[in-house]
Amino acid sequence: MGKLKFAILSFAHIHAWSYASVLKDLEKENEVEFVAVYDDDPERLKKAAEAYGVKQYSDYIRLLEVEKPDAVIVTSENAKHISQVLVACEKGIHVLCEKPIATTLKDADEMIRAVEKSGVKFQTAFVMRYHEVTVETKRIIDEGSIGEIVAITSTNHGKYPGLWFGDPDLAGGGAIMDHTVHNADLMRWYTKDEAKEVYAIYKKNIRDYLKVEDNALITIRFKKGVVASIDCSWSRPDSWPIWGDVYLGIFGTEGYIVVDAFRSFIILAPDKGAMTSRYFGTNPDYEMIKDFIRVIKEDDTPRATVYDGRQALEIALAAYKSLEKKAPVELPL
Question: What is the pLDDT at residue 278?
């Protein structure tokens, strides 16, 4: 199999720009051909197409029919993933889908059925499964260096992304929907277990003008007994330079692991002028897309499947149900 043709469906999500840059880098390595972008926002579409020198489409079905890409990266608003994924599956096109993969379990389950029926490869964009720090942590756990996992504490702090992330209809929620799923997925990956109970609390929005929550603390009890916590809050100021911190403390029967994935960066905050930063660590976006290409070419199973996307989404949705009930919620929902 030669170079794979890729297209990006929407630049609504801020990660689309990074994924597009990775595709251009992989073009130079003769791995892919980045052929086109779709967006339903004319200004965003023009900006993206010109930035990356690719064809532009305001109709994603026409893009798929005309360009016939081998794979698409779906980075539209969360609620729009379902329609684009279903059409791609119908046409036999492989999918890398931004997280959360959907805003409801009904949509996620429909995606699973479409993927199974079509036989396409579906990769959930859980980039933290591709960061060398979290991958090494997985190796250490699997070799038994800390014995059996007993508890995990974690944070994934960030700033409010703005745009449509504050629209409950398009995003499906706020910080819980946006930032819980990465850590929840790592916990499932590390424990090889599913959540049994979820409890969530929040007091008051940091930004009281938002229609969605921007702070929350979630506790999870897994079936085999592991207890975990996630602080998923958009608690960083708007000037903060990175998207999250992904910090975990993993307690085992024979040891303890501290995971600090984004430590390798410099922040410059002068008295006069704007704050700047530079990150020196792994580019998990590159590693994820590179591995997705390998999965397609070798007919392998993605490291984070559509089912993994569905299970992490269920934990986030259980957190919202817990907020409504003001009590723990049993899974499956």
Answer: 82
DSSP class per residue in 182-193 = HHHHHHHHHHT-
* Residue 142: other Cβ atoms inside 10 A: 10
Instruction: Please count the CA atoms within 13 angstroms of the CA of 15 that sit on its side-chain side.
Output: 24
> What span, in angstroms and rounded, lies between the C-alpha atoms of 178 and 85?
19
The pTM assigned to this predicted structure is 0.95
Exposed, middle or buried, 106 (CB in 10 Å: 0-12/13-18/19+)?
A: exposed
Map residue 118 onto helix, strand or coil: helix
Q: How far apart are CA 43 and CA 75, in angstroms?
A: 16
- pLDDT at position 243 is 66
Q: How many CA atoms lie within 13 A of 292 on its CB side?
A: 35
- Cα 8 to Cα 188: distance, rounded to the nearest angstrom: 28
Distance CA 266, CA 288 (A): 24
Domains in the chain, CATH or no CATH each: 4-127+285-304 (3.40.50.720), 128-282+313-330 (3.30.360.10)
DSSP symbols for 9-31? E-S-STHHHHHHHHHHHHHHTTS
Which residues of the chain form beta strands (DSSP E)?
A: 4-9, 32-38, 55-57, 71-74, 94-97, 122-124, 149-155, 195-201, 217-222, 227-231, 247-252, 255-260, 265-268, 276-279, 329-330
Low-confidence ranges of the chain (pLDDT < 70): 242-244
What's residue 85's pLDDT?
98
Specify whether the backbone of 307 is left (phi greater than 0), alpha (psi in -120 to 50) or beta: alpha
Locus of tokens 């036999």 = 92
Distances in Å between the alpha carbon of 123 and those of 89, 202, 292?
12, 32, 7
Three-state DSSP state, 311: helix
Q: How many CB atoms lie within 10 A of CB 5?
A: 17
3-state secondary structure of 327: coil
**E strand or H helix at 49, and its extent?**
helix 42-52
| Burial (CB count <10 Å: 0-12, 13-18, 19+), residue 204 | exposed
